[in-house]
Structures are given as structure tokens and as C-alpha cells.
Amino acid sequence: MQKQDNHSLRAYFLDRVGQSEGSQGRHVRQSLGIGALIGTSFSITIRNLLPVLVIGFVVSLLGALLAGSLVGVDAALNLETDDTSDLAGLVDLATAFVDVIVFAVTAAFLAQLTYDARLNRPVSIARYLLPALKASAPICLQNGLLVVIFVCIALPLVFIAIFVNTTLISITALAVLPFVALWGCSVFSVLAPAVVIERIGFGGMSRSWALTKTYRWQIAGALLPVWLCSLAVTIAGAFPVELLAREGSYVWALPVFAATNALASGPLAILATLVYARLREIKEGISVDQVADVFD
């Protein structure tokens, strides 16, 4: 009798283990599809180059004018200055803050354009205006908070690199910064599209945190090559901007600067929306056309 009970108990546990393994097999984590996301981001940018440039140009130009009124035109155009005062660091922080806000607002506009492009629907900048403007305040404030958080994390590492005499520790402290920045960007990469599409206001940070969970380094792998391409565009555009500014032609330097920023930020903003759509498809089973219904 005891042998029979033991046999039954063993069969029961084997059956439970088999069910557990089968369940795990059915819930294998899907790949984000980094290559497809990167390719699609550039494809959408190229196919909709004019509206992408118009949106980015207007937002970047307004951002440059705002930064110019706060810290001067040269600083707004990211030109090298001879300022060695204690306020130089604050000027750099102010321009970085404005740059983040400009990208956030651009991403709010391009989130809607990306969905229209994916569904082969007509692109209409006028239709994007009201939802983007409504989402701009919470997106800007949350991105501003992220800048403050990053600065608070970065400052101790910079102080360690400067004041610690050990070379290895200094190099290690500085080497950590890019990884912190990349990880932070991947965690909150879908903040703007989440706020625009789901209309969740100041819940964008928590929503992005939840959506990107378990996919953050994959997202980082998608962001890095696109960011490097954007960096190359920015560097290439910096030469004519500096040349024009040094000759005093700020009337031309500002538009060239805005156009360069528009071309550099477009693929990144579109990629953020594509990542958002892919994460919702994987985690919630919601397709692109179902999400796009919110704009109708």
C-alpha cells in the first residue's frame, strides 16, 4: 500500500514538473527585433523626410531662440566660448536642458507621424498639433526631472574622477557615466509616445519604466547605433554653423543649426515610438492599428 502511495505521489510530482516546463516553454520571451526597428526608423524618416524636417526645424528653432535669450546665441548654438567663469557650467546645463526639452517635444509630434507612416495613412502635421501641445507640458517636466536626476548621479562620479589621485579609480568613474546615460535613456525611452498615445500625463515615467522592464539592454542596443548616426549628422552640421556664426551671419546660422537638429533627432524620436509599439505588442498583445485608434 505504501509503495503504491509513493508511486502515485511520484507520478503526481512528475506531472506537475512537466506542466511547469511546458508553461515556461509557452512563455519564452520574444525578441525586440533590433535590426527591424532600426531599419524601419530610417525608412520612415526617409519616406517622410519633409514633414520630419518641418516639425524638427520649427521646434529646434524655437528652442535655439529660447536658449539664446537665456544664455546667449553662441551658447545656444553649442559654439566654443572663452568663458572660464564659475557660471560656465550652469550655461552648459541650461543648454543641455533646452536640448532635452526640444527633443521631447519633437518626439511628441513624431509619435503620431510614426503610427500614420506604419499604417500607410496620410501624414498631417495640423492633426498632430493639438495632441502634441497637450502632452508637451508633462513630457517636458518629466524629462527635466530626468536631467536633474542624471546630474545628481553624474556629479559624484565627476568629483571622484577629478579629486581622487588614483588614475584607475578616476578612469573607472568616468567610464561608468556613458553606461548610466545609456541605461537611463533606454529605461525612459518610450516616455513621450506613452504620454501622447495613452494620454497619461505625469504617469509617463512609471509607464516607461514598466514597459521597458526586461528589455532595457536590447533597447540600448537599438538606440546606440541610431544615436551615433545622429551624432555624426550633428558634428557635420556644426562646421557650417560655426563658420556662419564667426562671420556674424546668425540669421543663417540659426536655421542651419535647426535643420541639422531636425535631421539628427528625427530617426531617434521615430525609433522611440517604434520601440513603444513593439513593447505593447509583445507585453499586451496590442497591435499597431489598435493603438493608432486613439488618434481617430
List the helices and strands in order: HHHHHHHHHHHH
Alpha carbon gap, first and last residue: 69 Å
The average pLDDT is 83
The number of distinct helices, counting runs of at least 4 residues, comes to 12
**What can be said about the biggest beta sheet?**
none
In percent, how helical is the residue content? over 70%
Low-confidence stretches: 1-27
Q: Shape from CA axes?
A: globular
Summarize the structure.
The chain contains twelve helices and no strands. With 296 residues, it is an all-alpha fold.
Structure description:
The structure is a single chain. The protein has 296 residues and is mostly helical. Helix content is 83%, strand content 0%. Helix 5 packs across helix 8, helix 6 (125-163) runs antiparallel to helix 7 (167-187) and helix 6 packs antiparallel against helix 8. The protein starts with a helix and ends with a helix. The model is unreliable at 1-27 (pLDDT under 50).
Task: Please name the defining characteristics of this protein.
single chain, 296 residues, mainly alpha, 12 helices, globular, disordered N terminus
